[in-house]
Write a structure and sequence with these properties.
There is one protein chain. This protein starts with 5 loop residues before the first strand and ends in a 7-residue tail after the last helix. Helix 7 packs antiparallel against helix 9 and helix 8 crosses helix 9. It is 54% helix and 10% strand. It has a three-stranded antiparallel β-sheet with strand order 1-3-2, with no helix packed on it. A three-stranded antiparallel β-sheet has the order 4-5-6. The chain is elongated and about 110 Å long. By secondary structure, the protein is mainly alpha-helical.
């Protein structure tokens, strides 16, 4: 059964999928992973690219028009130039006459008005295109932030009843960056610089602040939800298991932070 993107109530959705929805303006919106690969998002990106192309074309046309105007006499009019050229006698003819100053001024005013109208139209079209781009960028970035946080929080074992609160707490620190190839990524701004959402949330879930949001272990899983996420736990001594001292030392050397998380999950007190 496909999950609907927007629903009025969670009653029609299986309980295991409730965590994938977020309430927005009285409705529940599906948090979609990999939005940029989704056909709908690709259509949205295609539309955005088309808008940008149209904007660039309009800008190039205006630049070309202004360049031509700068190279022409102030009183130049293309139609008048063609007419005069067709009617012009031999340049050596002493009877040749020039257009009157009054006529030239009239043509100048007409040409300037045409340019002013073109610039006004261009400005209005550029403003409209900029608005469309800002709106689309806002939608894409919002989905990236919400999806990235939700995925990281679920993987870190945050209880579903606390997902909304945890997401609201961490969201102000998340921003969207664009790589050199144009790909957008959601990252967390920390005092030490940018950090990937998954890594940041995993560390946060083990802090005093984040630990209260993590779901408690149930049943026979004495190592808790964090152990399920982090893999085999060499500190696990539940159900008659013996801690694996060799793997403990290897993990401490290779990844101290993960080692601390696994030790805490098994009820040990890390001293490194």
């Amino acid at each position: 059964m496909a999950l609907k993107a927007i629903i009025e109530s969670l009653d029609s959705v299986e309980e295991q999928f409730h965590v994938l929805y977020e309430e927005q303006d009285g409705k529940f919106v599906l948090q979609i992973e990999g939005i940029e690969a989704h056909p709908g998002a690709q259509s949205l990106k295609a539309a955005l690219d088309r808008v940008r192309t149209e904007k660039r074309t309009l800008s190039e046309k205006l630049t070309t028009a202004e360049g031509k105007l700068a190279d022409l006499p102030e009183d130049f009019d293309a139609e008048e130039w063609i007419r005069l050229k067709a009617e012009a006698p031999d340049p050596a003819d002493p009877e040749k006459k020039k257009p009157s100053d009054e006529h030239l001024q009239s043509q100048k005013r007409l040409y300037e008005q045409r340019i002013a109208n073109l610039e006004k139209k261009h400005t209005e079209e550029m403003k409209a295109k900029d608005g469309e781009i800002v709106e689309r960028d806002s939608v894409i970035e919002s989905v990236l932030v919400e999806d990235g946080l939700t995925k990281a929080l679920v993987e870190s074992g945050v209880a579903k009843e606390y997902l909304r609160a945890a997401r609201a707490l961490l969201k102000p620190s998340v921003k969207v960056v664009r790589d050199d190839d144009g790909t957008r990524r959601a990252v967390v701004e920390t005092d030490l610089g940018e950090d990937e959402i998954g890594k940041y949330v995993a560390n946060w879930s083990q802090s005093d602040e984040g630990r209260v949001f993590v779901a408690k272990a149930t049943g026979g899983d004495a190592t808790g939800s964090n152990a399920r996420i982090l893999g085999d736990n060499p500190w696990d001594n539940s159900n008659g298991k013996k801690p694996n001292l060799t793997k403990q030392q290897e993990l401490i050397s290779a990844n101290p932070e993960k080692a601390r998380q696994l030790a805490k999950a098994a009820g040990a007190a890390p001293n490194w």
